[in-house]
Write a structure and sequence with these properties.
Layout lengths: L1 E5 L3 E8 L12 E7 L1 H11 L4 E8 L3 H11 L2 E2 L2 E3 L4 E8 L4 E5 L8 H15 L4 E5 L8 H13 L3 E5 L2 H6 L6 E4 L8 E2 L2 E2 L3 H13 L2 E7 L4 E5 L4 E5 L11 H16 L2 H18 L7 H7 L4 E4 L2
Parallel strand pairs: 1-4, 1-9, 2-7, 4-5, 4-6, 9-10, 10-11, 11-14
Antiparallel strand pairs: 2-3, 7-8, 12-13, 14-15, 15-16, 16-17
């Protein structure tokens, strides 16, 4: 069983319109509303790929039942802690004429200490049946970065593999004194880590080496729409796959991570897992949702992936 943790889940609301005119009236042509947040996205993708997956985190407000019902239809088991706050909404604006995509993110409500304690107890119970836990996304108000490190330590004690899919500052809090299976920094906001530009090949090498030195078994770095390097202490791979202009990028990086986890756990081969991951991301982009359309489509798209061993 795989657990995914989303402490700050959201409804992802995608708005399609020809072009956004700031300060003026805009009419949306169509919309999609679905459960989101990094761990939730990974859970949906893993379920589509056939993994037994449990999504946990905090949920609150009137949208809870719809949020969970939608996840269960995809095949995700839900085990959230309920809070007395409304779930946030993130808005994705897709301008079809300009081929431009914008993201507007809400911070989320504050989480009280009693809910944090309940979550920790529930999380520890779930770990007893887990092979791997993925922790992804931002933190809601009232949750300190050290809380995530506590979750990692609990998983380490239970010998459960840990995957961190987090923004740089939060990720750095968790690197010291922990054992990590996969580290996947979310660098969408600043495109930098350790002061290095992710778009420079030499910087990617330095970032990967530093993360490996700090205790990660595998490092995944994204530096384009579907351009990646995957590094271990023994080898490094580079991969990419072409996306059509009409692709919707919501959830693509999380679908990629889910594809990598699914394949690597089965085959223990970095190159093959990267290829499979790219197929998974490509399928999610075509699906216009935050998860692949089907396992069959992923296996078709992975044939388009360009993967090579760098070192």
């Amino acid at each position: 069983m795989i657990i995914t943790v989303t402490l700050n889940p959201a409804f992802d609301h995608i708005l399609f319109l020809p072009e956004l005119h700031l300060g003026k009236f805009n009419r949306v042509q169509s919309t999609i509303r679905m459960p989101g947040g990094k761990g939730v996205n990974v859970a949906c993708s893993l379920a589509v790929l056939g993994e037994e997956t449990v999504a946990t985190g905090f949920l609150g407000g009137h949208g809870c039942s719809m949020f969970e019902r939608t996840l269960r239809k995809i095949g995700v088991t839900t085990n959230f802690i309920y809070v007395d706050q409304e779930i946030r909404t993130d808005f994705f604006l897709i301008e079809e004429k300009k081929n431009r995509q914008s993201l507007v993110v809400e911070k989320g409500s504050s989480i009280e200490l009693r809910y944090l304690n309940s979550f920790k107890s529930n999380f520890e119970r779930l770990l007893s049946s887990a092979e791997l836990v993925e922790i992804g996304g931002s933190l809601p108000k009232g949750v300190a970065p050290n809380f995530v490190k506590e979750l990692v330590s609990l998983a380490n004690k239970k010998k459960v593999k840990v995957v961190l899919n987090l923004p740089e500052k939060l990720l750095l809090e968790c690197l010291s004194g922990t054992d990590l299976f996969i580290v996947y920094p979310d660098l969408r906001e600043n495109k930098r880590m350790f002061g290095e530009d992710i778009y420079k090949p030499s910087a990617r090498l330095n970032i990967a080496k530093e993360l490996l030195k700090r205790g990660s078994e595998i490092v995944i770095l994204k530096y384009g729409n579907l351009n990646y390097i995957v590094a271990t202490k023994e080898e490094m791979w580079e991969g990419e796959i072409e996306l059509p202009k009409s692709s919707v990028l919501i959830g693509v990086r999380d679908a990629m991570l889910a594809g990598f986890i699914h394949n690597y756990l089965a085959k223990n081969n970095v190159g093959e897992a990267l290829k499979y991951a790219l197929g998974s991301g490509r399928s999610a982009a075509k699906n216009i949702r935050n998860y692949p359309a089907s396992k069959k489509e992923v296996e078709e798209f992975l044939l388009m992936a360009k993967v090579r061993k760098v070192s």
